[in-house]
Each structure stands twice: as C-alpha cells, then as structure tokens.
Write a structure and sequence with these properties.
Helix 6 packs parallel to helix 7 and helix 7 packs parallel to helix 8. The chain is globular and about 65 Å long. Strands 1-2-3-4-5-6 form a 6-stranded parallel sheet, covered by helices on one side. It has 2 domains: about 40 residues, Monooxygenase; about 180 residues, Alpha-Beta Horseshoe (Leucine-rich repeat, LRR (right-handed beta-alpha superhelix)). By secondary structure, it is of the alpha/beta class. Pfam families: F-box-like. InterPro entries: F-box-like_dom_sf (IPR036047), F-box_dom (IPR001810), F-box_LRR-repeat (IPR050648), Leu-rich_rpt_Cys-con_subtyp (IPR006553), LRR_dom_sf (IPR032675). This is FXL22 protein.
C-alpha cells in the first residue's frame, strides 16, 4: 500500500511524528502530501532550538498555533547575553546578525496567531519588553508565559502582565537579571491568581548603568595598554 492511499486523518497522524524538516521533505514528493503539510491542524505546536530555525520555510504560522517554544541552549547564548563592552568584534558581529530575529518572528506571531495559549522563550537575549507587550495585547488567550535568561526583560514586562495578561495563569521570569523584587511584588499583588516563578532574577546583578559601563570599558582599555 502506497502512503498516498492513506486517508487524510491517517496522513495527519503520520506527519505529527515527523520533525519540521522531514515534514517539508515529504511534502515535496506530491501534491496530496503538500496539502497535508499545509493543513493548519498539523501546526498547533512549534518548537525551535535556535533563532536560525525561525528563518526556514519548513513550518506554517496561523490561527491554529497554540503552543510555541524558542529555546536556545548553547554557549553562544552566553555571548549574546554579556554586555557589549565585554565582547570582541567577532562576538558583536555574531550577536548583531540575530539582533532582530526573534523579535520579528514574535511580531509575526502577534499578527497571525491570536489563539496562542503558551509561549516559552529561553536564552533569547534580544527579546524586548515592547515585543512581549505586543504578544500580550494580540494573544488575549495566553495562559502561560515562560521567560528564562532573557536579559532585556525588565519590570516593564511585569507591568504589561498586570495590564494585559488577563488570561495568564503561569508566569516565569527565571534568570532575567533586570527584573526587580519590586516588580515581582507588584505582579503578586495585582495578579494573585498567576503562578509566578522568578528563580535568581531579583537576586542577580542587574546591567550596569551606561555611565558605569563607560567607566568599566575605559578601565579595561587601560589594563590592555599596560
């Protein structure tokens, strides 16, 4: 029996066990399998392991998307999360190439995936408060927001949660070093039904002020000259 002789329900079930690349490759073999690949029912969950994967054409974004995860577990995460003054030219170039990748993708999600229920971001050092604000505004059914090691996230995201996270039930801001205890307390006060996790966040050393960064950079240059 040839695979194309299976009914659509069986084909969808078969596709559900494949990764994104395998789905795309199988869809190239015939028109019937391409139609299965394009079925919204196949794309209720998306997992990405690096920003590079976001630029591929092996998946579909649409109203059927319910669960989205972008987790970048790599030594490169540490590079992108350190202050600019500590990076060499190679590291800066690497980070610049991914500067807007995740933010642009999430803005696309805002426009095309209004039924999103869960968003998990880990190691996405370039994600901004404004981007998370747009997600909260455009995905009103969002129940779970998990942010880990997203260093640009601040109390502005926590404030956005209190204003636009009416459906939110789970909020994680673990290892987000620019989140303060005051911001966490505000969420607990205004959103008592939200399960809040902030492991190490308020206890970590926040980013230095611009003036202090400049002083540290000058001191570093002097040490190099010596």
């Amino acid at each position: 029996m040839h695979i194309t002789q299976l009914n659509r329900e069986c084909l969808l079930h078969l596709f559900s066990f494949l990764d994104k690349n395998s789905r795309k490759n199988l869809a190239k073999t015939c028109h019937k399998l391409l139609e299965v690949f394009q079925d919204p029912l196949l794309w209720s969950l998306l997992n990405f392991r690096s920003p590079v994967e976001l630029k591929k054409d092996n998946f579909l974004l649409g109203p059927a998307l319910k669960y989205l995860s972008i987790c970048w577990y790599s030594e490169r995460v540490k590079v992108c999360n350190i202050e600019d003054w500590m990076k060499n030219s190679f590291q800066k170039d690497f980070c610049n190439r991914h500067e807007n990748t995740v933010n642009d993708f999430l803005l696309d999600v805002c426009n095309r995936c209004p039924n999103l229920l869960s968003l998990t971001l880990s190691g996405c050092g370039h994600v901004t408060d404004d981007c998370i604000l747009q997600v909260l505004k455009n995905c009103p059914n969002l129940k779970s927001l998990k942010l880990e090691n997203c260093v640009r996230i601040t109390d502005h995201t926590l404030e956005a949660v209190t204003l636009h996270g009416g459906s939110l039930r789970t909020l994680h801001v673990d290892f987000c070093r620019n989140v303060t205890q005051a911001g966490l307390d505000r969420v607990r006060q205004k959103c008592p039904s939200v399960m809040l996790s902030a492991e190490r966040s308020a206890n970590m050393i926040p980013d230095s002020k611009p003036e202090k960064k400049l002083m540290l950079e000058k001191a570093s240059r002097k040490l190099v000259q010596l």
